[in-house]
Amino acid sequence: MPRWIVIGSVMVVSAFLGGGLGGCGSNHEEMICDEAGCRICDAYGCRPASPSVTGSGGTAGGAVDSGSPEPDVQSPPFCDPSTALCPCGGQSDCDEGYTCLDGVCLVPCEFSSECGASRICVNGRCVVGCDTLVPCPDGYSCNAIGVCEIDSSTAGCGGASPCPGGLVCVEGVCRGTCETTAECASGEVCHAPTGTCIADPQPVRPCAKDPSVCGENQACVEGYCRYPCTDDMSCKLIDARIPVCKDKICMSQAEAAPECTKKQDCPGGKDCVSNVCK
Prior knowledge:
By secondary structure, this protein is mostly beta strands. 4% of the residues lie in helices and 29% in strands. The protein has three domains: 1-66, no CATH class; 91-157 and 167-206 and 260-277, no CATH class; 211-256, no CATH class.
């Protein structure tokens, strides 16, 4: 039977592992615990106890090491949503202000006016838009809802076409690797699930830090450069694409009276494209 011996601030566990005279033979072991930790001692000397056994000021956290390895239990790596697009399995995985979309937590867009030049808001993500007048860049094709997507027939990498050094192929596109967005190019964000840089699908607030970046006759409203107005006519004279004066700001018909702001608003699995179900 093991016995516990407390001497001052030191606790000793004495265990007899078989027959013999206690304290003399090699089959006698004692575990001594103090502020420095726990160690197992016998007639030949001492050795550290199992890492799971600790001691501090007369307390012990376990028994003599049985020699069995402790299970390696690791917590998932911490991901800071302010430095990367963090993985998620549902909305409960995301911090306040973020939405779980396509497996990552991000700040969703509601209107295409939040996405910047040449981009539109589709299902809460800012993506490159296209039409007959605005074609997609090389390597992309315009799909049925007016969004540029990778042209599989001219995919830039994969199979016999590997990426150059330092880049990895993800869905036919060579991407730089990253741990945080600071390692990505301007306009890109670090996609934590793949560890690669992608075009940032979140709204762009160009004047949030410096209102002076807005153009002539524009005002910075909640981080976005907008045209102030008093009536619809003043908006039509500025740009026919934003003919509605609402809340003293010029906006498109779709933004003024949106059919949708997210995919869940649309019936039959349709997509929410610039506030219209398609």
